[in-house]
Amino acid sequence: xxxxxxxxxxxxxxxxxxxxxxxxxxxxxxxxxxxxxxxxxxxxxxxxxxxxxxxxxxxxxxxxxxxxxxxxxxxxxxxxxxxxxxxxxxxxxxxxxxxxxxxxxxxxxxxxxxxxxxxxxxxxxxxxxxxxxxxxxxxxxxxxxxxxxxxxxxxxxxxxxxxxxxxxxxxxxxxxxxxxxxxxxxxxxxxxxxxxxxxxxxxxxxxxxxxxxxxxxxxxxxxxxxxxxxxxxxxxxxxxxxxxxxxxxxxxxxxxxxxxxxxxxxxxxxxxxxxxxxxxxxxxxxxxxxxxxxxxxxxxxxxxxxxxxxxxxxxxxxxxxxxxxxxxxxxxxxxxxxxxxxxxxxxxxxxxxxxxxxxxxxxxxxxxxxxxxxxxxxxxxxxxxxxxxxxxxxxxxxxxxxxxxxxxxxxxxxxxxxxxxxxxxxxxxxxxxxxxxxxxxxxxxxxxxxxxxxxxxxxxxxxxxxxxxxxxxxxxxxxxxxxxxxxxxxxxxxxxxxxxxxxxxxxxxxxxxxxxxxxxxxxxxxxxxxxxxxxxxxxxxxxxxxxxxxxxxxxxxxxxxxxxxxxxxxxxxxxxxxxxxxxxxxxxxxxxxxxxxxxxxxxxxxxxxxxxxxxxxxxxxxxxxxxxxxxxxxxxxxxxxxxxxxxxxxxxxxxxxxxxxxxxxxxxxxxxxxxxxxxxxxxxxxxxxxxxxxxxxxxxxxxxxxxxxxxxxxxxxxxxxxxxxxxxxxxxxxxxxxxxxxxxxxxxxxxxxxxxxxxxxxxxxxxxxxxxxxxxxxxxxxxxxxxxxxxxxxxxx
Length: 797
Description:
26 helices, 4-stranded parallel sheet, 797 residues, alpha+beta, disordered C terminus
């Protein structure tokens, strides 16, 4: 876009808009008043400055690790968050009127859901046909009477809006199951504010934090005195919006929980933590209700919690939103909006929906069949399995037979012609179709609208459906205020600040942190061994016994040696670490996760390059692994989660060091074995400073295995492991130690009192076995054990 001639830029833009409605330009081609400050500011910037500001927003999103997952035919791909510029700006007066209509609709939906899961008068009085309820997969019979309690069944919802050619807003769909996008809207705002800090200030753009603060406070009141008993229930890291779920949990101070983190005792739901089970009172549900409880709902679910609905019925667990609330997403309900609204609130709704006909009635079915050229067919009911965010699909084939055979499952809907909004596409400003998702939260005072929303921009000018899964982009939404926006923070207020320790760590998170430590260390071990092998093989010498032993060790780690491709094995190990880190993004530094992904990308690039230098590649990997280790040590909060990660690192490094030393040295170390052990433990420089240049078996063993001050030695790993273990939950000084602590104490003493001459293959293999047993005991006590599992035992003394 060149603003040297603004008139020609806007004239070109207006020509592309045509006769439709555009958010920025009025009918006469002039810039709408609420857009004028933004357009003037963009026009006053040189191209380089404007591009730099856009890059700063993208850089923030990249550094924060914001991504979404795109599902293909047979795979899933993580993609950087696609932020479109400039923001969508809405007129403040129009927004106030729109907000009133949104609150009215939210109240209507709340009453509708309460009736469908209560007395069902709408069915008995004939306002709503029975099959729309009885045949609907989202009508959950195990909670069929939950509406009789009088408690709100929905507390956080979204609505998808589109603006037609006449400038009116239309409801395209209601999102009441587990609406996504609010977290991405927050990240869009942070990124855009970094790009245009003076504009957001001068235009008095309303802040979003107050909306989330109010919602969080309502969750706290639901939970009662113990506010730590609130969780966000996620489908897991393979969900397309997992980043957002982890972000919102961190932002609001909630536990990020998967179904496996929960266990039901009687009518109570508990969280499995490393310090036993803890009751939980409120769950913000972000997985479809079908998958919540395999005992009463979808039996094939592997991400739910058996018995969860029992706790909901008993009233010991409040769920946001209630299971079954997804029934409000049924498109069939849109066909009866007017009579439903008259019955429930006594008037028509101010916000219309897209025109809809339910094909379960003969006259409506005939109307849809007769007007197939301007209508689309879509499912009348929500699907019974989790789906993406693509919106209604357009039918492409002859669907007349389906209309006759199963018309009650279908609706006909007008094909909405969406308004357009400005978007930079390859540096040029173009009008693109836009939809707006708005969010509402309920508290004791009623419904409240987030001042802004989540706008989606289509990837083509003639798109009918805007989908992030199909290449669409997102943009920030600005609502201006007459007065400067007051600063709002979720950090709390008060005259006195109290530092509090984090709450109990879920066992799943501890498990992932522990194995992240092990996988990262395993990748480093394999990389060091491969560099050792490649350096020796590159010297042109005939492979000796040491190189053969190293090749055997590499094979055990899944890494081949030349002429086979060793990089594929390293890639597998690096992906293990990166994948595990991705599961705990709410507890892990984005820089640390990014450094692991850079290692994956480095190896993938090396595999694509046929003519590569293995020694150089392994050195580059080790440099990045050192950076990862430094980030963990210097940046990660050193509490329970960090301790589990350190335990994993120490066990993996200690066990592998013992096995490698046992393999290299045997009874009579072959030529080059001592140098190889020093090389593997990165102890050459230290050895030369402490001992003579000549190598002896006793001095090498002492430095690499028994010296407690060498951070690469076996003794150092065991000492640090013991220090971390005594800091874990449930350990009380003076009590009789259980098997785990007896084992680690005995291992420490064995290494402290050992002499270099007695360290042989049997000694090292026993140490490796003890470390393996310690790993099993940690898992049994903290990571994989159920509530009734013993904390002692686990093997012979």
